[in-house]
Design goal:
InterPro entries: RmlC-like_jellyroll (IPR014710), RmlC_Cupin_sf (IPR011051). With 302 residues, this protein is mainly beta. The chain is built from two helices and 20 strands. The protein has a seven-stranded antiparallel beta sheet with strand order 2-3-4-11-6-9-12. Strands 1-18-15-20-14-13 form a six-stranded antiparallel beta sheet, with no helix packed on it.
């Protein structure tokens, strides 16, 4: 169902058919409409989750620090704004990460400092129990959602853990979809900014059999169109969603719902797609994952 010009039309999974018989609702967390879960000297932080992931969106004050003690697994630091740099400390070493970058922070003790403040997005797995419990929609996952297998982390980097950062200043290439980075716990696709509303004749309705998608809106607004399959059991049917979400916000799209997102603003729109753990189908496409040499796929030779 992808448009013929969409690079994802070549994915093997694009032709699979959903076989689920029960479905979860989508989750929409409009941070701009709600109070933050944390409000302290470091700034304001909103927390929302899916089954496997927690998104922490912060408006950091100058000099803000965000520390994790005995962090159970690798997490993501996204610095979307060029002027919002960070220093990341881990195991006695400190690295400066410029704005407009993505970084992966290993397990253990770490601190992210924002010297000038600004927007900071961190992504954790729900194995971080303290953050999972603090999410605005924690109750929605009191029972595991259907169609999603248990989380399994991907292999560690070939040369061991360290803080790794990558610039988002990556030019587009024909046939490559977005700007995709992965680590042991996440895959993050920093999609191209859409300067104006999306052409409604070139949408990309599609579905995933067995993983959630988190769509993080950082600029502008998006309408998330979601349709669930019909089954023989009418009790399992769900009405379509056509949810307008401004920024900042997250939409958590459950499998195997058909979905597509439409940019809405004339002044610019920025969406980030997030998956936990990483996607196999994207990883199998040569050249799509920009840091694939650092993080092997499951079953890859050491």
């Amino acid at each position: 169902m992808y448009n013929s010009t969409d690079p994802r039309a070549s994915l093997a999974t694009a032709k699979a058919g959903p076989a689920a018989s029960e479905f979860a609702a989508a989750e929409y967390l409009k941070f701009y409409e709600s109070a933050p879960q944390l409000d302290d000297a470091s700034g304001r932080t909103w927390l929302g989750r899916g089954q496997n992931f927690v998104i922490a969106y912060s408006e950091a004050r100058p000099g803000a620090t965000f520390s994790r003690t005995a962090q159970i697994d690798e997490y993501v630091v996204l610095l979307q704004d060029p002027e919002a740099s960070a220093t990341i400390s881990w195991q006695g070493s400190t690295q400066t990460v410029p704005g407009y970058s993505i970084a992966f922070v290993p397990p253990g003790d770490s601190t992210v400092t924002m010297p000038a403040g600004g927007r900071l997005v961190r992504m954790f797995t729900t194995r971080s129990d303290d953050l999972s419990a603090a999410c605005a929609n924690a109750d929605a996952y009191s029972e595991p959602h259907p169609n999603i297998p248990p989380f399994v982390a991907w292999p560690e980097p070939r040369d061991g853990h360290r803080v790794r950062s990558y610039s988002l200043d990556v030019p587009a290439e024909p046939g490559r979809f977005g700007r995709i980075f992965r680590c042991t716990t996440f895959m993050v696709n920093c999609l191209p900014a859409e300067p104006k509303p999306r052409d409604i004749t070139k949408l990309s309705p599609h579905y995933h059999d067995d993983f959630e998608q988190c769509s993080l809106a950082l600029t502008g607004s998006f309408t998330h169109h979601i349709r669930w399959p019909w089954t023989p059991n009418l009790n399992a049917w769900r009405a379509d969603d056509h949810e307008l979400c401004g920024s900042p916000s997250i939409a958590v799209i459950p499998p195997p719902a058909i979905h597509t997102s439409r940019a809405m603003e004339d002044s610019g729109n920025q969406l980030i797609d997030i998956f936990s753990p990483p996607r196999v189908d994207f990883s199998e496409k040569p050249g799509w994952v920009l840091n694939a040499d650092d993080y092997p796929m499951p079953g890859a030779a050491a």
